[in-house]
Amino acid sequence: GAVVSQHPSWVICKSGTSVKIECRSLDFQATTMFWYRQFPKQSLMLMATSNEGSKATYEQGVEKDKFLINHASLTLSTLTVTSAHPEDSSFYICSARLSGPQSYNEQFFGPGTRLTVL
Amino acid sequence: GDSVTQMEGPVTLSEEAFLTINCTYTATGYPSLFWYVQYPGEGLQLLLKATKADDKGSNKGFEATYRKETTSFHLEKGSVQVSDSAVYFCALGGGADGLTFGKGTHLIIQP
Predict the structure, then answer these.
(1) Which stretches of B1-111 are assigned E, i.e. beta strand?
(2) Inter-chain contacts counted by CB atoms under 8 A, chains A and B
(3) Residue B93 CA: distances (Å) to CA of A110, B3, B7
(4) Closest CA to A42 of A2, A91, A1
(5) Sheet holding B75-77, edge to edge
(6) Which of A73, B22, B95, B107 has its CA 20 to 30 A from that of A83?
């Protein structure tokens, strides 16, 4: 149980286009999902916290108009990279938080999406 | 802000060797501490966790103890296997916030 999927697993796009990445919790409901970004040989950096039915909370330095997050249901959050540029090329990873007193707010991670902007 | 420092890799060991991957942290308050593992081509999986000082997390032969006095959470395993080859991430956080990760340590176990 507690499986999180991401789609697509990799995407190549032209500079200036927008790309949408989906994150789904397959067998549980997640009121909170997180989006991370990972550069080569670097740690995962938290980009934003996505809460179902409300606006996302962005970390300092992350452009909210560039990285649009929508958490329309308890099992789906989307990240749209708008007007993508080569410097946006990265590995994007989502996680979904399992809530409850016994879960210690454990997060379950998706497999990641590799974005390459040409 | 919070931060996690873990030893740089890659770490290369022979099968059945003893493993230690160091992890130290700085944080306000009393965060939970985690070790995640990422096998090739897969997403991060929780390996073990500890939620308060002196707690020991353990799973699949791996152990780590939450040491508040040294702000450390070192990962250990007595006898590694080839199948343990992966990238290991130390992280802190929990609660309503996202996690703060170390850079990851690539572990290579040779037969």
Answers:
(1) 3-6, 11-14, 19-21, 23-26, 32-38, 44-50, 56-59, 62-65, 75-77, 86-93, 100-101, 105-110
(2) 54
(3) 18, 10, 19
(4) A91
(5) B19-21, B75-77, B62-65, B56-59
(6) A73
Contacts of A105 in chain B (CB under 8 A): 94-96
Low-confidence ranges of chain B (pLDDT < 50): none
Q: How far A42 CA sits from the closest chain B CA (Å)? A: 5
Q: Is A78 in CB contact (< 8 Å) with chain B?
A: no
Interchain contact A117–B (C-beta under 8 A): no
Q: Are A98 and A26 in contact (CB under 8 A)?
A: no
Question: What pLDDT does residue A82 have?
Answer: 97
β-pair partners for B106? B87
Distant-in-sequence contacts of B35-40, Cβ < 8 A, 24+ apart: B35/B62, B35/B64, B35/B73, B35/B75, B35/B88, B35/B89, B35/B90, B35/B91, B36/A109, B36/B88, B36/B89, B36/B91, B36/B101, B37/B86, B37/B87, B37/B88, B37/B89, B38/B86, B38/B87, B38/B88, B38/B89, B38/B104, B39/B86, B40/B86
Alpha-carbon distance of A43 to B4, in angstroms, equals 10
Q: For A17-67, write each residue's pLDDT tens digit.
A: 999 999 999 988 888 999 999 887 778 899 999 988 888 999 999 999 999
Q: Which of A32, A108, A106 is nearest to A69 (CA)?
A: A32
